[in-house]
Amino acid sequence: MSISWEQQDLFVSSNGSTANVQQSNVQQRSSVRIARFPAANGIRELLIRKGDGGKIGVTGRRIHEGRLLICAVARRSPAYMAGLRYGDEILCLENETLAGMELNLVRDLVRKNLRNSIKLRTKDKPGERYVTIAKDVQKGFGFRFMNGEITFVRPNTAAERRGLERRLQIIEVNEEVVVGMQDEDIEAIIYANDDVVTLCVVPVKVYRQLFSQLIPTISDALTFVEL
């Protein structure tokens, strides 16, 4: 199913121009979005029932600081339904602290768990904010971005009123992870979702220190673990 862009104009694009996009189509993905409820201090204590293959649908990656961060969450998976998202940190697995633990030991914990559920303690990604913006007929969504970073917020727009500001990095658009995507692809996802968009953003400093390490490369397969 495709959605026409012909009726969607005056979006402030990533290159600073006001885009009047025509004769383009974008594939609208069929998905289920589950609201992520706030957690006290960002800490979540979860007992997640396993799904297909005895997994909950999460892939974690070890980063340089010895922490295990979620780099992928399968849509409709038990982990997704429980509220886990890209960039969250897995603190404990089955009451075992994971910081600094060798990945082969983490995999052993997963393999030896014969129950139909996995117990996790997680921490939401630092500095995350969810901003929902309604598109203005004349002013568009009211922001510009470059390389996923918010570079301009137009005054007196919904974006400004909702607290969007410069020096924030876009992590998700309508709960679809956009880290590593080209700006035009991010823009396409924004346009594919009616006249309201929800962004998950984090401070640029946090992104550069933390989330840039989650972008996969060919040589780092051994740094991943599936749950």
TrEMBL record:
Pfam families for this protein: PDZ (PF00595)
A GO CC term attached to the entry: plasma membrane
UniProt keyword list: Repeat
Transmembrane segments: none
InterPro entries: APP-Binding (IPR051230), PDZ (IPR001478), PDZ_sf (IPR036034)
KW Repeat (keyword) present: yes
PDZ domain span: 45-112, 130-205
Official protein name in the record: PDZ domain-containing protein
Organism (species): Anopheles minimus
Lineage: Eukaryota, Metazoa, Ecdysozoa, Arthropoda, Hexapoda
